[in-house]
Design a protein that fits this description.
Oligomer: single chain
Mean pLDDT: 77
Largest sheet: 2 strands, parallel
Number of helices: 5
Strand content: 5-15%
Low-confidence stretches: none
Length: 152
């Protein structure tokens, strides 16, 4: 019985199970349409440097693959959907790299600014020390201004 269905299946123009037309108007087999979600996944995947687009590429890629699988050959575009998925996942993996780079640049710039920041030096007694941002005491101000100890 299976050989009979195989022989009929090769030359059939109508599906024996669902009675749908298998051939186009010219008598040639129809070419499967490309899934719209697969195309959308590829377009969003090409814009992977924009994080919401990468998320959409992954979602639409998975939806289109399941849609293509369930269509039983009516829909095509499996390769397009996979390309959109790959680009979407590449965009999602690019986000942590950007975050780490931003943190590293921030730390590098802060260290460089600390090294090049001009420091004011104050002579206070026999030692020289960096000027602090806090206000010096009255005794220190008197010594700095007059050179004499306070009250004397």
């Amino acid at each position: 019985m299976s050989l009979l269905f195989q022989a009929i299946g090769e030359y059939a123009q109508v599906c024996p199970f669902c009675r749908s037309n298998l051939v186009g108007p010219s008598g040639l087999p129809r070419q499967a349409e490309t899934s719209g979600k697969a195309i959308g996944s590829l377009v969003c995947g090409l814009l992977f440097f924009f994080p919401p687009s990468a998320i959409l590429a992954v979602i639409m890629g998975h939806l289109s693959l399941s849609e293509i699988r369930r269509s039983a050959g009516r829909l095509g575009g499996r390769g397009v959907a996979i390309a959109g998925l790959v680009l979407g996942y590449a965009g999602l993996s690019f986000i942590p790299v950007l975050i780490i780079a931003a943190i590293a640049i921030r730390i590098y710039c802060a260290q460089r600014w600390r090294r090049t920041k001009p420091q004011r030096w104050v002579r206070c007694g026999p030692t020289t020390r960096p000027y602090s941002a806090t206000r010096p005491s009255a005794r220190s101000r008197a010594i700095l201004l007059t050179g004499l100890p306070y009250g004397g």
